[in-house]
């Protein structure tokens, strides 16, 4: 007998028929002899609907109050799922975040989980119940409602799995696994059987929306085997797991894009020590996550500093930068939210050279100008004009051989290495 945490996303609980289908799936897992904990998101579109209501009131919402509003979506779906299970003669109990003490910090709208009290869940499981936990929401030390950021139910599921030391965490969604890229954009995209935590982390962080990034961090830290599966099929899905030798043979596992960032350039910044800290310190104090940063070589003692933030933080970040401008003696601020970031990710990059060069070549042969570049050990990202997103993703998918099936696990992709000869970054 295993302890399984299943998570169902918004589309999987999108209407009452789908909720009945979720109930049947939970019951089937229980009938197979498992203890079942199910974490659910709000019904599809609900969180967006709630955020729209907020936006009709103000464009700079108090985030505590916003969380009070958006956390309600999950309360509806857990109650409905629990009742759907009961309607099939099953036993089920729903829990809100605070009822299982999903304690978070107080960073409203993107709170981090600190601890979970597994006891109420274990007690309900011991009575033969399927436990239905609200995703996305928590409670801070003062008892305020918090939420974990968009897509946060994934993180709830993995955190619950870690707290319970579950045997597996299954994330059910509307796609049947993790793909080499967005299959809606690139028909040649293929489903991966396995992907490493690290690759998934990079793909999630660069905009592949299949899993929330913090859920993957959690899974990696606590070594929770994470399955991404469809709630509409019986396909085995994709396993997110620890790396093994054969996984390094593939140069690029996936291509991702993100149209959710915006670019801010602080112009004419004096090129003296401490300036970057004066810009990024206040951004950090406001919990604004800065992604790419590029500083131009200075001319006449002044330089331009460009960085990207999430579109949701764009206005707030501009306010912060404008407030800091006087103090740092910058000349002006330029902004652009018509950008996209395209990225290639693969653990194979560690042992192969020429990957970035091949990426730049693929983009330039489509006439796409690169505005910013950033790299990590297993990732290269380029910021381009938003209108080129699709073209860039397709070109990269083809350039790195992802249109073709991957070599089977254990096979060596000799051709991939050979094709890179002579290209050095
Ligand atoms: N309902 C939340 C959202 O739409 C959380 C989730 O779906 O995971 O972002
Ligand atoms: Mg989701």
TrEMBL record:
<protein>
    <recommendedName>
        <fullName>Aspartokinase</fullName>
        <ecNumber>2.7.2.4</ecNumber>
    </recommendedName>
</protein>
<keyword id="KW-0547">Nucleotide-binding</keyword>
<keyword id="KW-0418">Kinase</keyword>
<dbReference type="InterPro" id="IPR001048">
    <property type="entry name" value="Asp/Glu/Uridylate_kinase"/>
</dbReference>
<dbReference type="InterPro" id="IPR005260">
    <property type="entry name" value="Asp_kin_monofn"/>
</dbReference>
<comment type="pathway">
    <text>Amino-acid biosynthesis; L-lysine biosynthesis via DAP pathway; (S)-tetrahydrodipicolinate from L-aspartate: step 1/4.</text>
</comment>
<dbReference type="Pfam" id="PF22468">
    <property type="entry name" value="ACT_9"/>
</dbReference>
<dbReference type="GO" id="GO:0009090">
    <property type="term" value="P:homoserine biosynthetic process"/>
</dbReference>
<dbReference type="Pfam" id="PF00696">
    <property type="entry name" value="AA_kinase"/>
</dbReference>
<keyword id="KW-0067">ATP-binding</keyword>
<dbReference type="GO" id="GO:0005829">
    <property type="term" value="C:cytosol"/>
</dbReference>
<dbReference type="GO" id="GO:0004072">
    <property type="term" value="F:aspartate kinase activity"/>
</dbReference>
<dbReference type="InterPro" id="IPR041740">
    <property type="entry name" value="AKii-LysC-BS"/>
</dbReference>
<dbReference type="InterPro" id="IPR018042">
    <property type="entry name" value="Aspartate_kinase_CS"/>
</dbReference>
<dbReference type="GO" id="GO:0009089">
    <property type="term" value="P:lysine biosynthetic process via diaminopimelate"/>
</dbReference>
<dbReference type="InterPro" id="IPR054352">
    <property type="entry name" value="ACT_Aspartokinase"/>
</dbReference>
<feature type="binding site">
    <location>
        <begin position="209"/>
        <end position="210"/>
    </location>
    <ligand>
        <name>ATP</name>
    </ligand>
</feature>
<feature type="binding site">
    <location>
        <position position="47"/>
    </location>
    <ligand>
        <name>substrate</name>
    </ligand>
</feature>
<dbReference type="InterPro" id="IPR001341">
    <property type="entry name" value="Asp_kinase"/>
</dbReference>
<dbReference type="InterPro" id="IPR045865">
    <property type="entry name" value="ACT-like_dom_sf"/>
</dbReference>
<feature type="binding site">
    <location>
        <position position="179"/>
    </location>
    <ligand>
        <name>ATP</name>
    </ligand>
</feature>
<keyword id="KW-0028">Amino-acid biosynthesis</keyword>
<dbReference type="InterPro" id="IPR036393">
    <property type="entry name" value="AceGlu_kinase-like_sf"/>
</dbReference>
<keyword id="KW-0457">Lysine biosynthesis</keyword>
<keyword id="KW-0808">Transferase</keyword>
<comment type="similarity">
    <text>Belongs to the aspartokinase family.</text>
</comment>
<comment type="pathway">
    <text>Amino-acid biosynthesis; L-threonine biosynthesis; L-threonine from L-aspartate: step 1/5.</text>
</comment>
<feature type="binding site">
    <location>
        <position position="74"/>
    </location>
    <ligand>
        <name>substrate</name>
    </ligand>
</feature>
<feature type="binding site">
    <location>
        <begin position="7"/>
        <end position="10"/>
    </location>
    <ligand>
        <name>ATP</name>
    </ligand>
</feature>
<feature type="binding site">
    <location>
        <begin position="173"/>
        <end position="174"/>
    </location>
    <ligand>
        <name>ATP</name>
    </ligand>
</feature>
<dbReference type="Pfam" id="PF01842">
    <property type="entry name" value="ACT"/>
</dbReference>
<dbReference type="GO" id="GO:0009088">
    <property type="term" value="P:threonine biosynthetic process"/>
</dbReference>
<dbReference type="InterPro" id="IPR002912">
    <property type="entry name" value="ACT_dom"/>
</dbReference>
<feature type="domain" description="ACT">
    <location>
        <begin position="264"/>
        <end position="347"/>
    </location>
</feature>
<dbReference type="GO" id="GO:0005524">
    <property type="term" value="F:ATP binding"/>
</dbReference>
């Amino acid at each position: 007998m295993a302890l399984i945490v299943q998570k169902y996303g918004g589309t999987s609980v999108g209407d009452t028929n789908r909720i009945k289908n979720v109930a049947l799936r939970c019951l089937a897992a229980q009938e197979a002899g498992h203890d079942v904990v199910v974490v659910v998101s709000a019904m599809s579109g609900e969180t967006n609907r709630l955020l729209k209501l907020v936006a009709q009131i103000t464009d700079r919402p108090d985030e505590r109050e916003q969380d009070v509003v958006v956390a309600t979506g999950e309360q509806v779906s857990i109650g409905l799922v629990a009742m759907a299970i009961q309607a099939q003669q099953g036993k089920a109990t729903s829990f809100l975040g605070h009822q299982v003490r999903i304690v978070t910090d107080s960073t409203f709208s993107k709170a981090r989980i600190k601890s979970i009290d597994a006891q109420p869940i274990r007690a309900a499981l011991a009575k033969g119940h399927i436990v239905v936990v609200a995703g996305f929401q928590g409670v801070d030390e003062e008892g305020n409602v918090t939420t974990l950021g968009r897509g946060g139910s994934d993180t709830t599921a993995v955190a619950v799995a870690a707290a319970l030391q579950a045997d597996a965490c299954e994330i059910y969604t509307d796609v049947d696994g993790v793909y080499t890229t967005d299959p809606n954009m690139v028909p040649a995209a293929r489903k991966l059987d396995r992907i490493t935590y690290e690759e998934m982390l990079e793909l999630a962080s660069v905009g592949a929306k299949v899993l929330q990034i913090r859920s993957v961090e959690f899974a990696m830290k606590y070594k929770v085997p994470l399955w991404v599966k469809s709630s509409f099929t019986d396909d085995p899905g994709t396993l997110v797991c620890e790396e093994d030798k054969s996984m390094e043979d593939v140069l690029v596992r996936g291509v991702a894009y993100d149209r959710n960032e915006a670019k801010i350039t602080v112009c004419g910044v004096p090129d003296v020590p401490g300036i970057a800290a004066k810009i990024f310190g206040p951004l950090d104090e406001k919990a604004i996550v800065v992604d790419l940063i590029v500083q131009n070589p200075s001319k006449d003692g002044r330089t331009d500093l460009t960085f990207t933030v999430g579109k949701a933080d764009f206005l707030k970040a501009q306010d912060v930068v404008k407030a800091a401008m006087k103090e740092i003696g910058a000349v002006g601020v330029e902004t652009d939210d018509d950008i996209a970031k395209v990225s290639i990710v693969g653990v194979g990059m560690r042992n192969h050279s020429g990957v970035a060069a091949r990426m730049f070549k693929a983009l330039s042969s489509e006439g796409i100008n690169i505005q910013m570049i950033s790299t990590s050990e297993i990732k290269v990202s380029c910021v381009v004009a938003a209108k080129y997103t699709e073209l860039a993703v397709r070109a990269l998918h083809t350039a790195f051989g992802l249109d073709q099936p991957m070599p089977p696990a254990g096979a060596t992709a000799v051709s991939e290495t050979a094709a890179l000869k002579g290209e050095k970054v």
